[in-house]
Amino acid sequence: MEITDLNGNPLQPGPSYPATLEGSLAAAVAKGNEPSPEQATPEFQKAIAELAGHPDDRPIPGSEAP
Fold first, then answer.
1. Over the Cα atoms of the chain, what is R_g?
2. C-alpha angle with apex 39: 19 to 22, nearest 5 degrees?
3. DSSP string covering 14-41, please?
4. What is the chain's pLDDT, residue by residue, as a tens digit (66 residues)?
5. CA 26, CA 3: separation in Å to the nearest integer?
6. Quick one: how many helices (H) and strands (E) in the chain?
């Protein structure tokens, strides 16, 4: 079975990201879905600031996620 687009061309797999908070953020940034500071709530800005110093190689437990 082959999955195609509306023109019948085979779809190519895109980049994959881990199913983690960091992976979700990386996928959003790769798609250009990062909100501008004007749109971000103070709570969102605080959460992003807390993640900025987190090591990339260590998953964030749910209890620590902002």
1. 16
2. 15
3. -----SSHHHHHHHHHHTT-PPPTTTS-
4. 788 989 988 888 878 888 888 888 888 888 877 666 677 788 888 887 877 777 777 777 777 766
5. 26
6. 2, 0
DSSP 3-state of 42: helix
Report yes or no: 17 and 27 within 8 Å, Cβ to Cβ. yes
DSSP 56: T
pLDDT at 13: 80
**Three-state secondary structure call for residue 63:** coil
**How far is residue 12's CA from residue 16's CA, in Å, rounded to a whole number?**
12
This prediction's pTM:
0.35
3-class DSSP state for residue 44? helix
